[in-house]
């Protein structure tokens, strides 16, 4: 910057007379190798000034010092002001705090006239004051969730409900992970997770809210990092670093804790956690950790009276889900259960449980192609009595009840009657109220892959290679259904997936799905979620084996059930419970250890 010093020395008879220096700064183009030319000499002509400067700003500056008494009357040391036709536009007292100066000293301010506008130079207008901070602006934060006392998953779900109730909106959640304790080792295993929240609270106010939730849920801190029924920590907040004696953001323990990085990697795998190290992503920190001696696993709760599914535990047992169709037109057992006396139906259900079924799937609407859609009232009349019957006569058995429906109203009534799981063949797409209803009820939902409706699905079975092919198409569309469920408020740990054999898949496509089930399980965005596979008696088995009658496809079904267990299925849905339970027992012995 070249500085033109306009020095005006003022002589006064008062002993406190001072000298004022005013500066006119002119920015000149870069010269040579890019060095900025600086000078304090006068500009010799207005022509050279106009050719060299890009913009200019008036600065009132300079130190005040006592002039020597021998100086003559006021004179211009630099005449550039004359060349630029500077005019004095203001004269005021320099200081209100020094009366001894203001009596004898006038501050003279010079500026360029409005008419002087060199070519290609835009004189900046007076800048507006920045807008005040918006106290209602929504911030994004990530909260760690943990518990190792009592109903661990229940405590975490209560904490999430409290967050929502206090206006701290839970937008997404990770899976829940069961982990070994750190630091204090003599305590029970933890359930850990994380949630993405939207809040208007500042960091310390958010911390206060979390601690108040902990206190309201009865947390009592006896030992630091010791047992607790609920633990809530701020991990990240709005991409900032925050240091306070009560709170550090990002959380200092993130890089060393697998039970924190695993949930965060589900939510924000490609996000840098430290603003000062934007090249280090969440998944990079997770990959840098040493392998766990005991691999941690996700947990999917099914009900309060049954253990959760541990989808990443290699020694987990496969659930056998018995099919109880209360319909007259299902493809293989239509009418089999609708005309039975109550005692006969009870006997059939008991045989399911005695043979090894841990779940019973009750359906009142056939989803076979070309079957008519019944009314909501008719579907309720079919499924509710069966659910109530199971609950009343088998209260001493830890049986899980699933309701097979794509209607939100039927799902809600079924859960009220005693159902634990909603099994939706449409993945929540055929009834827009299904996902919000399940979120409000807090139940686990199985999202099946299907295109269109049962009436149109077989015409939608094309999966171009350009769009990922069969497996890529199924995976991408299931990722979308999971995202829709999370947007509606369904916790990720409450989601089960189903590849949808026979639904928008024909013939050998179903075989390909069974071949690549393990690939689906570890597809980005679907990792850690449990899978249900329903291949029982379906038409593709008949095509391969040459058995036209569905009830006679037992052996073909057995092979698909074994393949499903090998591929990582957590639940197999079957008609022939006694036979398939034996297949599952053997398959578990081979592949689950």
TrEMBL record:
Its cofactor is Mg(2+). Residues 318-585 form the Pterin-binding domain. Pfam families: HPPK, Pterin_bind. Coiled coil: none annotated. Pathway: Cofactor biosynthesis; tetrahydrofolate biosynthesis; 2-amino-4-hydroxy-6-hydroxymethyl-7,8-dihydropteridine diphosphate from 7,8-dihydroneopterin triphosphate: step 4/4; Cofactor biosynthesis; tetrahydrofolate biosynthesis; 7,8-dihydrofolate from 2-amino-4-hydroxy-6-hydroxymethyl-7,8-dihydropteridine diphosphate and 4-aminobenzoate: step 1/2. It comes from the Eukaryota. It catalyses: (7,8-dihydropterin-6-yl)methyl diphosphate + 4-aminobenzoate = 7,8-dihydropteroate + diphosphate; 6-hydroxymethyl-7,8-dihydropterin + ATP = (7,8-dihydropterin-6-yl)methyl diphosphate + AMP + H(+). Keywords: ATP-binding, Folate biosynthesis, Kinase, Magnesium, Metal-binding, Multifunctional enzyme, Nucleotide-binding, Transferase. NCBIfam families: DHPS, folK. In the C-terminal section; belongs to the DHPS family. This is Trifunctional dihydropteroate synthetase. It comes from Podospora pseudoanserina.
């Amino acid at each position: 910057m070249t500085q033109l010093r306009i020095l005006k020395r003022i002589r006064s008879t008062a002993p406190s007379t001072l000298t004022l220096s005013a500066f006119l700064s002119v920015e000149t183009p870069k010269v040579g190798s890019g060095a900025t030319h600086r000078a304090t000499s006068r500009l010799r002509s207005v022509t050279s000034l106009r050719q060299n400067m890009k913009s200019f700003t008036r600065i009132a500056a300079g130190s005040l010092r006592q002039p020597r008494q021998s100086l003559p009357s006021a004179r211009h040391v630099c005449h550039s002001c004359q060349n630029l036709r500077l005019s004095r536009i203001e004269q005021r007292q320099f200081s209100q705090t020094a009366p001894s100066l203001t009596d004898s000293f006038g501050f003279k301010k010079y500026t360029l006239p409005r008419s002087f506008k060199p070519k290609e130079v835009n004189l900046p207008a007076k800048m507006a004051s920045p807008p005040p901070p918006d106290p209602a602006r929504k911030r994004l934060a990530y909260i760690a969730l943990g518990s190792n006392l009592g109903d661990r998953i229940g405590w975490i779900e209560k904490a999430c409900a409290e967050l929502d109730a206090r206006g701290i909106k839970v937008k997404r959640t990770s899976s829940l992970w069961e982990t070994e304790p750190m630091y204090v080792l003599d305590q029970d295993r933890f359930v850990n997770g994380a949630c993405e929240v939207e809040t208007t609270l500042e960091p310390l106010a958010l911390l206060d809210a979390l601690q108040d939730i902990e206190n309201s849920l009865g947390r009592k801190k006896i030992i630091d990092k010791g047992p607790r029924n609920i633990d809530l920590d701020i991990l990240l907040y709005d991409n900032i670093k925050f240091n306070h004696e009560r709170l550090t953001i990002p959380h200092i323990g993130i890089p060393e804790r697998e039970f924190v990085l695993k949930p965060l990697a589900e939510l924000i795998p490609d996000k840098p956690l430290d603003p000062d190290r934007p090249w280090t992503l969440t998944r990079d920190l997770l990959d840098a950790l040493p392998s766990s001696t005991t691999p941690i696993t996700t947990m999917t709760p099914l009900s309060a009276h049954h253990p959760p599914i541990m989808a990443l535990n290699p020694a987990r047992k496969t659930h056998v889900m018995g099919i109880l169709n209360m319909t007259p037109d299902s493809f293989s057992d239509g009418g089999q259960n609708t005309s039975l006396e109550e005692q006969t139906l009870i006997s059939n259900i008991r045989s399911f449980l005695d043979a090894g079924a841990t779940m019973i799937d009750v359906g009142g609407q056939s989803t076979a192609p070309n079957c008519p859609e019944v009314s909501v009232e008719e579907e309720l009349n079919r499924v509710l009595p069966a659910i109530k019957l199971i609950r009343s006569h088998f209260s001493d058995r830890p049986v899980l009840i699933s309701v097979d429906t794509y209607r939100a109203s039927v799902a809600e009534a079924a859960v009220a009657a005693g159902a634990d799981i909603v099994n939706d063949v449409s993945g929540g797409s055929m009834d827009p109220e299904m996902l919000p209803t399940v979120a409000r009820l807090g139940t686990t939902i199985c999202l099946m892959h299907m295109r269109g409706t049962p009436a149109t699905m077989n015409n939608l079975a094309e999966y171009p290679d350009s769009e990922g092919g069969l497996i890529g198409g199924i995976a991408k569309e299931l990722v979308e259904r999971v995202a829709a469920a999370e947007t509606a408020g369904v916790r990720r740990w409450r989601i089960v997936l189903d590849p949808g054999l026979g639904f928008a898949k024909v013939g050998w496509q179903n075989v390909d799905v069974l071949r690549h089930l393990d690939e689906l399980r570890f597809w980005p965005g679907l990792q850690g979620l449990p899978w249900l596979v329903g291949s029982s008696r379906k038409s593709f088995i008949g095509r391969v084996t040459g058995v036209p009658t569905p009830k006679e496809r037992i052996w073909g079904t057995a092979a698909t059930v074994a393949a499903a267990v090998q591929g990582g299925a957590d639940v197999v849905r079957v008609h022939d419970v006694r036979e398939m339970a034996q297949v599952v027992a053997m398959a578990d012995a081979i592949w689950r250890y």
